[in-house]
Design goal:
The chain is an alpha/beta fold and 409 residues long. It has 2 domains: 36-137, Enolase-like, N-terminal domain (Enolase-like, domain 1); 142-382, Alpha-Beta Barrel (TIM Barrel), CATH 3.20.20.120. It has helices spanning 6-20, 74-88, 96-106, 114-135, 139-142, 167-179, 195-213, 229-239, 256-265, 279-287, 303-316, 329-339, 355-361, 388-394, 400-408; strands at 36-46, 49-58, 63-67, 151-155, 184-188, 218-222, 246-248, 270-272, 293-294, 320-321, 348-350, 373-374.
Amino acid sequence: MNGIDRRTLLAGLPLAAAAALPQASTAPQRPMQMKITKLVYYRSTIRWRDLLFVEVHTDGGIIGLGEGTCHGRVDVVEAALRWLEPYVIGIDPVGPEKQWERINYHLTRWNSGIIPRTALSALDIAFWDIEGKRLGVPVWRLLGGSIHSRFRTYYTHWDAAVRSDDPDAFAERAVETMKNGWTAVKFSIPNRGTESERIATAVAILSAMRKAVGDKLDIGLEFFESLTARTAVRMAHALEPYHPLFMEEPLPRENLLEYGELAAKSPVPLATGEGQLSRSEFRPLFEVKGVSIIQPDVVKCGGITEIRKIANMAEVYNVDVVPHQCYGPVGHVASLHAMSVCRNFLIHEWEGADDELFQEATNGTYPVQKDGYVTLSDKPGLGIEFDAAQLAKRYPFTNQGAQAERRRS
């Protein structure tokens, strides 16, 4: 064998086979490069909500979906987005964190307030959608998740179908809701009469619901910042026997010190946060131990990039996260993706009355509630096929929010 023994020949075979195979490149594969070409806006009004959606178009054919809904202010948010257009069109949106840093810190020092933050949120959501579609993976995988196989939801604005202060009407609605699979709801305590009358109404409603469904249905209560610290303590002690999931915003959002004092006295968990727009604004709330549940809003606080950081911050203080969400399909799904890596996620607000409509508007790609839970798909980006133009045509914009605010004034 030409001086090569059998052992030497066998030892060399794996090396020879490896040399014969095509060599894989060790250089990292660059994602497809692209540039933003235009931003397209769509407004729509569904029931009492004015919705604003933005499509971020690219020359690579990928369109990122964002949502900039701000009740009574969608026209102002759209103006803010149009102001940002010269700084966005023409760039490659690669790296949502990079784009967030640029828009939030480098374009202007005036980056706080509900309008700039909502505009930033809309773009951030769209950039995450583009990034996922560019790389062919869902946003939850880009974030490192999901650590949740499914997400529990509660039916928000649940009392809209009751249209009565009659406790029996609430009880009947509770039975019907549970038959449809829901395990949690949230509604507003009627704000009529004296302090004692309002407390009596709340007690009568919760008592009737508990008699009808027991403790199988979790109940969140919205107070719209309508109580004083003294009244809130009375309300909490009166409702404690009926085990509310939380009392939402019993006090004005700005009174963070009072939240700390109320939390120390309340036997019912307190929740707030839809009006806090950044980690910096949540920090004082954590430091005074003002709540056991926060409700950050992905469409208001800076998008997916910021809400997950808020959630991480809350985890340090052992505070649960129950995201605020009452907008369109883009906002709902973006918030779920952000919660996919949130260890302290508890339950998600969900506009149950719009499930069928959002299913139609997304070609069946919107998450469907089953047994009180929803799941995210493994489709790239946000994972929904949303036709905002068709929704706007079907439900034209009527500026309901601004009209309602004028009536209140």
